[in-house]
Amino acid sequence: MSQQTLTSKPSLLGKKQKTPRTPKKHGDGLIALVFLTPVLLGYAIFYFWPMIRGIQISFTDWNLLSDPQWVGLANYRELMGDKVFGNALVVTIIYVLVNITSQTILGLGIAVLMQRISQSVVIRSLLLVPWLVPNVTVAVITLFILDPNVGLMNHILSYIAVNPISFYGNGDIAIYTIALVNSWRNMGYTALLLFAGMQTIPRMVTEAAIMDGASAWRQFRSITLPLLRPILVMVVVVSMIGSFQIFDTVSVATKGGPGNSTRVIYFYIYQKAFQQFDMGYAAAMAVVLLLILLVLSALQMKILRADSSDLD
């Protein structure tokens, strides 16, 4: 082959190689917006707009029959001196503390047992059964179980020479009874959330602790709890918000009694709004409850560092 022929052909080494173009993703934001639109509309219609409307009503005097009359901060000033509202707030706080503490501890214990003993899908499904039962049904069932005369619980207590106890009729223990009944209902769901969080903990961390001779309690205290903190904070915050909104069990089982021992703040709001037809005052209480929940949720997430994980 001649020299001219060799030089006439372009060199492949000298030719610039064209890198394949990656297709640009157009419209991802628009697609995301399309999928989020139903959720955003539902939130705006059923949450945001009612909240704004409730804040407006809190500055009025409205009995549902006539037009609302603007009264400014009068409802809030009256609220500051309302002893029934103060008692309802204290009763609600007692309920929240007992309910969250017992529910979280029991749920965490069940989650650990599921992690170490059995991860059966059947057992996980059975844990959800109480949570699927409506609160009203749970209240009606426990009314019979805890009845001081014919209730199963008092029948069992009679075998150990304990006198009949009126769990819902005794003002000293009624709110604790309601809290524990709702803890039983919700602890299975809490356990499943915590169990799901435990699955995110790297197995190599636990295996290393076992090789170092760490006991089961040491593994739980030094590994499981710290790494489970973000999930645990989420569970506690959601449980707290739900506990402050307790209404149906109280309405069915005690109707706020005996006395005011179980008149939680949601039940008091209901009484003011739909029994005494004082919608403005009830809306003012709802706004105060909203502010309390916002402050408590922010404090919990800040103190417990919900935005960070020990895995980082």
Describe the 3D structure.
There is one protein chain. The longest helix is centred in the first third of the chain and has 34 residues. Strand 1 and strand 2 form a beta hairpin. The chain has 14 helices and two strands; from the N terminus they run H-H-E-E-H-H-H-H-H-H-H-H-H-H-H-H. With 312 residues, the protein is mainly alpha-helical.
Summarize the structure in short.
Helix content is 68%, strand content 1%. The chain contains 14 helices and 2 strands; from the N terminus they run ααββαααααααααααα.
Q: Which descriptors apply to this entry?
A:
312 residues; mainly alpha; two-stranded antiparallel ribbon; 68% helix; globular; disordered N terminus
Largest sheet composition: 2 strands, antiparallel
Strand content: under 5%
**What structural class should be given to the helix and strand makeup?**
mainly alpha
How do the SSEs run, as a string of H and E?
HHEEHHHHHHHHHHHH
Strand line-up of the largest beta sheet: 1-2
The CA-CA distance between the termini, in Å, is 66 Å
How much is the radius of gyration in Å? 29 Å
Shape: globular
Low-confidence stretches: 1-15
Amount of helix: 55-70%
Number of strands: 2
Q: Count every helix, treating DSSP H or I runs of 4 or more residues as helices.
A: 14
Quote the average pLDDT: 86
